């Protein structure tokens, strides 16, 4: 996977690395979700292969989830930037495990992601 600041290059690298007929079909039928497909395929590949040049780990391997802190995900009706629920849950688990005194969010249009912490 190519890493860099140019989103088009990252998407092209991910597409080349994980290209298959399904990704082409998704590109033609639902272009909005096509960019997420290569990431999903890569994460599943890493789950199956275990180790490779790149590594993947479970959330439990990255943060201490042994305390069983509850997390709450809020839903607000209306427009917003779509964030998958699993990604929100991972961010909430990380935030709960480090227990910050402040959360500063950069990057969402309306700031709705921060409501989940």
* Largest sheet data: none
The class by helix and strand makeup works out as: mainly alpha
Overall geometry comes to globular
Tell me the strand percentage band: under 5%
* CA-CA gap between termini: 30 Å
Q: What is the helix/strand order?
A: HHHHH
Mean pLDDT: 74
Query: What is the number of helical segments per DSSP (H or I, 4+ residues)?
Result: 5
Helical percentage: 40-55%
Uncertain stretches: none
How many distinct folded domains?
Answer: 2
Tally of strands: 0
Radius of gyration: 17 Å
Walkthrough of the structure:
With 117 residues, the chain is mainly α. It folds into two domains: 7-49, no CATH class; 59-116, no CATH class. Helix content is 50%, strand content 0%. The protein has helices at 7-18, 21-29, 31-49, 59-62, 85-98. The chain starts with 6 loop residues before the first helix and ends in a 19-residue tail after the last helix.
Question: Secondary-structure map with pairings?
Answer:
Layout: H1 7-18, H2 21-29, H3 31-49, H4 59-62, H5 85-98
Which labels suit this protein?
117 residues; mainly alpha; 2 domains; 5 helices; 50% helix; 0% strand
């Amino acid at each position: 996977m190519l890493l860099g600041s140019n989103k088009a290059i990252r998407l092209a690298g991910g597409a080349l690395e994980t290209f298959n007929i399904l990704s082409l079909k998704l590109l033609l039928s639902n272009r909005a979700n096509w960019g997420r497909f290569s990431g999903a395929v890569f994460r599943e590949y890493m789950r199956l292969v275990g180790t490779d040049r790149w590594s993947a780990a479970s959330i439990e391997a990255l943060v201490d989830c042994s305390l069983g802190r509850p997390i709450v995900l809020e839903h607000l009706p209306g427009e917003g930037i779509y964030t998958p629920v699993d990604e929100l849950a991972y961010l909430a688990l990380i935030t709960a495990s480090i227990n910050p005194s402040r959360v500063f969010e950069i990057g969402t249009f309306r700031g709705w992601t921060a409501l989940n912490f």
